[in-house]
Amino acid sequence: MQPIWKHTENFTGGRDGTPVDRIVIHYIVGTLAAADATFANPSSGVSAHYGIGEGALHQYVSEMNTAWHAGDFPMNQRSIGIEHSADVDRAPSTSTYDISVELCTRICRDYDLDPQTQIIGHSAVVATACPGTVNLQRIRDAVAARL
Ligand SMILES: [Zn+2]
């Protein structure tokens, strides 16, 4: 699925030469439209490279640039951040998982990443409930099966 570009000013140009070696998985605590609105707001100070939900894939930041998603700037520089439509009481839909697996498979191929160790949850970076109801292992296993 080709992403639809959505606006954000919340990123840093380039990665200061840092190679991409992680995918960081997030949940929105809301729909994809909520992520669109948050990232379009300069005062939010947050973004991600991609957002998935309601059958759609949105891109906010080029993979060449540093998105502000992990709460840790060195991790932002080395990672691609992906948001998933879900809530504390609503797991991602099958469609959201399918789009995520397709995207993560492509990213793992492009950057030669091991899905079992290099696809991580936000909570592996900082203390947070994110990625909440996202089943991280389901994504890792599905990507591993496709590589
Ligand atoms: Zn997160």
User: How many individual helices?
Assistant: 5
How many domains would you count in the coordinates? Answer: 1
Mean pLDDT: 98
Number of strands: 8
Which strands sit side by side, in order, in the main sheet? 1-5-4-7-3-8
Please summarize the sheet with the most strands.
6 strands, mixed
Protein structure class: alpha/beta
Query: What distance lies between the first and last C-alpha atoms, to the nearest angstrom?
Result: 17 Å
Q: Report the principal-axis shape.
A: globular
CATH domain class: Alpha Beta
What do we call the CATH topology?
A: Lysozyme-like
> What percent of the residues sit in helical stretches (DSSP H or I)?
25-40%
The CATH architecture can be named as: 3-Layer(aba) Sandwich
